Amino acid sequence: MKTSTAILTKQCKDSLHNFPSLMIMLIYPSVAWIMITAMGSEEDMSGFFVPMFAAMHGSFAPIAISSNILSEEKEKGTLRSLIMAGVSSVNYLISISLFVILATMLTGCAFLLMGAFTRDHAVKFAAAMLAGAVLSTLIGLCIGICSKNVTAANGIAVPVGLVLALLPMLGRFNSTIDRVGELTYSGQMSRLMQDGTITVQMMAVLGAHFIALCVLLTLLFKHDKLK
Amino acid sequence: MDNKMIELNNVTRRFGEKQVLKGITLHVNKGEIFGLLGPSGAGKTTIINILTGQLSCGGSARIFGISCEKIGREVYRRTGTVLDNCGLYDRLSCADNLRLFAQIHQTPLFRVGEVLHQVGLDGCEGKKVKTLSKGMKQRLGLARAILHNPELIFMDEPTSGLDPATASEIHALMNELRHKGTTIFLTTHNMDEAYRMCGRIALLSEGKMVAYGEPAAICRQHCRTAALNIVTADGEKLLLSNSPDHADVIAGLMRSGQLRSIHSCEPDLGTVFLSLTGKELDQ
Description:
The complex is a heterodimer. Helix content of chain A is 85%, strand content 0%.
């Protein structure tokens, strides 16, 4: 527990000094705020922009941040020094995941302030953000484990993150993309954020993604052991 | 009581098709500086990784009498590591870097100031690591390694890429630690460093141990040409083979008061390595 707290504290301090990471965490809430403010005088666009950008935030940011943290620690040898100090790989991954999920939720709160949500809808919105953050963090960790350095990690994380983040938005303009988007967790997350309705298909897609990503992460971790 | 901190017995390790360690057998005694000497790719870091539980191996590797495959938190509390690339968080301050490891080792936070003083980094608490020179980073790495007063420190090429003055500062710190009873396991490809710092060394080449023992004894043992280096009173330098034929020459110089100095010419570690493997040590 003390080790996890120490890693979490370290990560908070480090991320506050890491401008690219801060940008990734703040870019979607900022863009949403700018769009809502710019179009505010014409009509209330928060119902359109908030779920859209929130889904982008919840799917893209955790993938980019978690893969970046892990690959940077591997590249710079800091992960090796942590492990040689007796930090278990599992403990490290849990601490980093916790940081990414907390940071995503915290910055994601901005969307709650921007949108006009009922209490019930706000809870479901937060639940959707949490689900997205967890699943995206798992993807980010998988990418981080496979990558030897930050460049390699970004090379995978950015396209994967962008596809997942853009699918829900593009689905609004094209029914085929919408049908594909329904099969992804980001699509279901966007739907829950938009109308606050929980469906069986939604639970099945989220559950299937969670199980598949946990299995993938376990396999990759057993194979690479954060080396 | 067993004096051995580290014991390797017929240790082997393979990466895919490549056999990187071929039956390494050695031990490290308490309170000594032990040097693992070899060129890049000889298997030095692999041995450190095995000893710190990062890699499995064939044969038997033990640290504090515990099998390296069963290393737990207790062993990590008794060891410190100085890595060749420092492994420090660039965006954090020196003190924050040390605080993180103090918390991991459950060491009181006042030790942070103490070790910074010990390595000569007073006043650098708030400095970001990315603003430090390589020598200062290496000293900070050493501060991190000694933060929890470990009994054994692994030093992986601690002076690699440092200027001679900074390297000698690191050597002074190592000697200070040895006098306090800390055991140091040093890997290096610097033969002078190994000769001056280490009580015993092992020479590695392509995963095989080619020599093992005290540096001076290894040099004497592999002395192929017995020669004497003579400097006369006039400053003339003579290199004579150590044979009866030259006894009269030396005696004559001594009788006439012309002999200023006479030394036997043992090869240095680099020459020994070259003669054993046919390769340069710092390749």
